[in-house]
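ARCHIVE CARD
SHELF: 3
SLOT: left
DATA:
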Amino acid sequence: MSLASQLDRYLAVRRSLGYDLRTSERVLRRFIRFADDAGAQHIDADLFLRWDASQPAAGSSTRSARLGMVRLFALWLSSVDLAHEAPPRGLLPDRTIRKRPYIYSKVEIGDIIAAASELPSTYGMRGLTCSTFFGLIAVTGLRISEALALDTSDLDVATGVLSVRHGKLGKERLLPLDPTVVDRLITYTTERNRLLGRASTPLFVRCNGDRLSEWSARASFARVSRAIGLREYSRFKRHGKGPRIHDLRHTFAVRTMIDWYRMGKDPAREMIRLTTWLGHASPDHTFWYIEAVPELLELAMARATRIGWEAQR
C-alpha cells in the first residue's frame, strides 16, 4: 500500500479510538506529499529531517510536535512493516518535553504507605497523615495541591463522595470513592481528632493541627523513598532525585488505562470518564499517557492494528 493509503487507515483507526486529529492530519499529509515527491517508500529519521528542513521556520515546540506526529505514524507502520523506522524521540531539541512518568508497582505503593506510617513524630501524627495522604493520591489520582486543600467536610460519608473544590484552573469535581477508601478516611479522621483533642477543618494536618504543607509532604515522601530504596541519599540536595509524589497520580491513570485494554473496553468511551475524573482540561492531556508509557503505547498500537485489519476484511 502507498504511504497515502496507509495514512488514511491510520487516521481512521485513531479516530475510532477517540482522537481529535485535525492538526495531525494536516501535518502528516504535508509529510506524505514530501515523501512521495522524494520517491520514499518507507519512513525513517533521515526522511523526517529532510522534510523538517523544507518547512517554514518554526519554534522548537512546533518542530517537536511535528516529530511526535510523524513518529507515532511510523511506529504504527513499523508494526506491520519493519522497513519503517520511527524517528527517535529526542531527534529534535524541545524545552517543553514532559518528563516520562515513573509508574509504581503495587508492591512499591504498598511499601511507600507502610514506610510512611512509620515516620517519626511526637504524637504519631506525621506517620498517620502521610500514609493516608499518599494512599489517597494513589487510589484517586488527585493532584498534590488538590489533596492538600481538602477539608474534612469535603468527604460525604453517607454517599462516599469526595468534593474536590480546588482543582486546576478553579474547576470543581465530585469523585465517588470505593467503600474501602471511605472507611480508611473515617479511621484516619477519628484517630486524627483523638490525637489533636478536637475536630479539624483541614483533612490532612501536621502535629500542631496546621494544614499539611506541600514542602512537608514532599520532604516526608523523599525520606520514605530513600528508606525503601527508590531514591539515593543526596548530600547536597536534601530531597535527592527519583520518583515523585505526582507519579502516584500518573500511576493511577496508566494502570486504569492498561486495565481498559486488557478487559477489552472501548478506550474512546472510557477516556472521557478518566479525563473528567482527573480534572484535565482536555482529553489530549490524558491521551499523553499513551505516548509516554511504552506498555500503554504497545497495547494501543496492538488494538489499532487489530481494528485496522478487521476493517480490511
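SLOT: right
DATA:
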Amino acid sequence: MHFALPPRKTSNPPPYTRPSKWSPTNAAHSLRKQRTLGVVIFCASLVAFFIFLRTVTPASVAAANIPAGTPEVVIVTVIDDKVSQAYLDRIKHNREDYASQYGYKTFYAHQKDFDLGQAPKSWALLPAIRKAMTEYPHTTYFWALSPHAVIMNPTQSLVERVMAPKKLESLMIKDQPVVPPDSVIHTFSHLKGHQIDFVITQDAEGLCSESMILRRGDWANFFLDVWFDPLYRSYNFQKAENHALEHIVQWHPTILTRLALIPIRTINAYTAQMSSRGGPATTIMDDDFVARAVGCEKDPTRNCEREMTPWFDTWKTKYDVKHSHGQF
C-alpha cells in the first residue's frame, strides 16, 4: 500500500508578505498624508514661481506697474540757504532745461527744510533724497547734484550716458581703493551693471557725494537709513556726511556690493584744477557733462556764484534749448 507523500518544502521559499490590514482609519491617514504632500508641493511651486518673477524678469514685471508719464530720472538739488534768488533761478533753469529734453523731473529742497539738530546743514542731502522718492514713488533713478554745478552738455540722457547696464560696466572702476590712496577695502571686480544701485565718483581725497546716482528699491532705503543714522550725524566727522559715507562703505559689505565708482569727469568734472584733489584728471574739458566749483561753499575766501556765472553763461550760449526758443 502506498501513501501520498506531503509536498516537499522548497529550500528557497518566497519572501514573507505581510497580509494587508485595510481599515477606515488607515485609509484616512493615507489620504491625509497625500493631501499634505500635495499642499507642500503646491506651496513650493508657488514660492519658486515668485522667486522666478523677481530674479529672472524683474525689469519687465516692474515696468508693467509704472504709471504712464513717470519720469525715469529725478534730479535732486539741495539749495544752500545763502544763495541769492538770481543764482537760484539759474540753477533751476539749467536743470529744468535738461530734464525737459528727456522727460525727467527736478526736485529742489532747502537746507532749512529739515530739522538736523546740531548736525551740519550738509546732512540735508539725505532727507531731501528721501522726500524726492516719496514725491516720485515710481521713478527709477535719483541724481543728487550740487547747486554749485552746471549740466554743461545735455546731448545725452543720464541713462544713456551712465546708467544703461552695458554703459555702466564700461565705466566702472574695479578693484579700486574706496578711500585713496591705500585703503585696504577695494571696489569689487565681479559686479555687473544691472547689479549696481549706487553710482559715485572719487578724487584724491575720497568719495564725492556732490554728484551721485541712486536707484530706487529696498536696498536704497536700507542704504539711506544706515547713512542717516543719528550716531553718524552726532559723530564729529571732519567732512560730515561725506566721511560717514566712506565709513559705511568700508565697513558694510552689503553697501559695497551695490556700489560703482566711475571716472570723475563722467558726472562731476571740476571747474578749476585742484592739485590736492586729483589735478588734471578731475578738471573739466570740452564736451564734459557737468562742471562743478568744488569746495567753494566751504571756503570763506571764495564766492560760488561768482565762480559759476561764466559756466552758466557758456551753457546758455551753447546748449540752452528753452532760451533759444524764447521761453526764458
